[in-house]
Amino acid sequence: MSSQKLSISSKLPNVKTTIFTSIGQLATKYNAINLSQGFPNFNPDSVLLDMVTKAMHNGYNQYAPMAGDMNLRQTISSKINAISKKYYNPESEITITAGATQAIFTTITAFVSPGDEVIVIKPAYDSYEPSIIANGGIPVPVNLSPKTYRIDWGKFQNKITTKTKMVIINTPHNPTGTVLTKEDMLMLEKILLDTNIIVLSDEVYEHLVYDGQSHESVAKYKGLASRSIICSSFGKTFHITGWKIGYCVGPKELMNEFRKTHQFNVFSINHPTQIALAEYLKNPNNYSSLSSFYQKKRDFFIQELQGSKFKILPCKGTYFQLLDYSNITQEKDISFAENLIKKYKIASIPISVFNENNRDDKVLRFCFAKTQETLEKATKILKSI
Ligand code: PMP
Ligand code: GLN
Questions:
Q1: CB 94 within 8 A of CB 115
Q2: How far does the centroid of ligand 2 lie from the alpha carbon of residue 207, in Å?
Q3: CATH architecture of 59-284
Q4: pLDDT tens digit sequence for 333-357
Q5: Is 24 in the pocket of ligand 2 (CB under 6 A)?
Q6: For the chain, what is the total number of helices (H) and then of strands (E)?
Q7: In angstroms, what CA-CA distances link 373 with 23, 226, 300, 306?
Q8: How confident is the model over 261-320, as pLDDT tens digits?
Q9: Domain positions in the chain
Q10: Three-class SS of residue 222?
Q11: Ligand 1 centroid from CA 207, angstroms
Q12: Which of 39, 205, 321 to mutate to test the pocket of ligand 2 (most atoms within 8 A of CB)?
């Protein structure tokens, strides 16, 4: 009997394996220094590791509450109140998630219906658009100004239609390192006034802001906080990207809808890390010096590249440095990134994958969340190119 071939109509026909996986695999194959995917190559604080071990021995090995451990939610609430002067009720306005990726996917699934438009600032982190499309939504790109990577608010406003359901912003911004200013936030607040548009604010790099700038959370702006879900991640703040734990906050009406999806998407997040983070997060010293810690790494990376053929683009936040290589070659960024791995044993992320229509600006992204030794080796290689 011949078997019938299954016909699959893909919900994501244009989506391939993410660049983080494909470049990561190539980096491993060629034993390259890996500055591609964004993660630290050093361990988190051993105090935090001990707290997780303790939580496991103390019996926190079964399901956590659906919205997350209450103690952790209370600590998050106090932290946001102290920093942004905005109170979120831990009972009804904060949910612990399996990293920001799940928070983002769940937010989009909870609010975006087929035919809804979602404004996405490009270049954009690569999970936004597939999440929109899988829900039948339509991503509407707004390009950052080339090379300066600022938002042109006039262009942004022109993209708003009666179908716009959501706007996704990301500050500090991956991959460009741009940080939105107070003026940006006030513009956004003004543009959205009297609309029914929800804001998804991706603030995973909230504690990685440099040169004396401050992180402008939507929580600080009344007209934005009332329409926003903020997604954040402990992965970035505590050097624990592999734990996949984050959270989202938003007004009760939005959080209520979020949780309707969340409870069937993941139900609850691993329990012992929540217990540990509740304790660890209580001490502001555990995150308040993160910006200066990473600014030193950024400064070292930039300083060592002086005199190289790469052009260094501004990085005001995140742990990514963009380098323009147009003085070296006109090769496409994906192929140049692959060649750097094969010939020079150094891995980076080509920016075209985040751009509208994969526009190629001859720019690569390098993650500097690495040990001094790795940064020394990496910059030496880059200087030799
Ligand atoms: N948003 C941005 C902008 C990111 O760079 C990342 C990177 N991981 C995420 C979301 C996802 O965070 P998580 O690892 O907590 O899922
Ligand atoms: N956020 C990280 C980056 O941009 C990694 C995300 C991922 O691997 N999906 O590099």
A1: no
A2: 17
A3: 3-Layer(aba) Sandwich (3.40)
A4: 999 999 999 999 999 999 999 999 9
A5: no
A6: 15, 13
A7: 22, 45, 11, 18
A8: 999 999 999 999 999 999 999 999 999 999 999 999 999 999 999 999 999 999 999 999
A9: 19-44+288-384, 59-284
A10: helix
A11: 14
A12: 39
Output the six-digit token pair for 253: 């009406």
Q: Which CATH class is domain 19-44+288-384?
A: alpha beta
Contacts of residues 291-298 at CB distance under 8 Å and 24 or more positions apart, as own/partner, are 291/207, 291/208, 291/209, 291/210, 294/208, 294/210, 294/319, 294/368, 294/369, 295/210, 295/211, 297/368, 297/369, 297/370, 297/375, 298/210, 298/368
Which residue has 């975006």 as its token pair? Answer: 112
In the structure encoding, which two tokens stand for residue 104, read together? 């983002």
Q: Find the ligand nearest to 125 CA.
A: 1
The DSSP code sequence of 121-163 is EES--TTHHHHHHHTT-EEEEEEPPTTT----HHHHHHT--TT
Query: Would the CB of 170 count as within 6 Å of ligand 1?
Result: yes
